[in-house]
Amino acid sequence: MIGGALAHTLLLLLTLSVMCLPAAAAEMTVSAAASLTNAFTELKGLFEKQQADLTVHTNFAASNPLLKQIQEGAPVDVFASADQATMDKAVAAKVVDPATRRNFALNDLVLIVPKGGKKPVDLADLRNFKKIALGNPESVPAGRYTKSALSTVGLWEALQPQYIQGNSVRQVLDYVARGEVETGFVYRTDALQMADKVDVVMNVAGHDPVSYPIAVATTGKNAAMGQKFVDFVLSAEGQAVLAKYGFSKP
Length: 250
Fold this sequence. Notes:
Layout: H1 2-20, E1 26-33, H2 37-50, E2 54-61, H3 63-71, E3 78-80, H4 84-92, E4 102-107, E5 109-114, E6 132-135, H5 141-152, E7 163-166, H6 169-177, E8 183-187, H7 188-193, E9 198-203, E10 210-216, H8 223-234, H9 236-244
Helix pairs in contact: 2-9, 3-4
């Protein structure tokens, strides 16, 4: 009798102790294009404050490598790329939910030089520059936009010997900021982050609009929270943060 009562008491105490344990903090992962680093870092902090016990992990790189990681099973809840083509591939690979896909920002491709450096008069004048930095067109959307722009004016092949390719648009920005190259192609938002080290020479035309799509990924474990993050990015507060870093509305 006493044994039964003791067992019942121990079970009750165990149940109560489990109930009193703090709930495990929720986690989610956002993989986003390198050009979104500053804006999404701020968005992450604001979103975490809105959600109780949530930790948001961010992963920034060129869009194509991010997609490859997701295709290989990386646990990602939200994917934001710097071009439509990469998101199209994500949809085709069924690693994002197409119903959640939204365009959330626009950007501009610009030509920059080190602060106070020699400036090309136009794109044709790039023939007189020995080192031109650009993103690798095979993996970096900014590189694909650059290739399209230079192809439009018949310069892509002619300038091949001068190209210094970067693994992300931020690497290209660093090359120019450090004076390792004479000029380079980046997004306007990137140039704004180093306005004290680079000069914007011109906006570059001759390519598709630099449009950023976002979607909930299917490889993560927190799709519901992923959708909330997407909604937050699209909200007035989220758009205000993006505008602060130089992005415009789609």
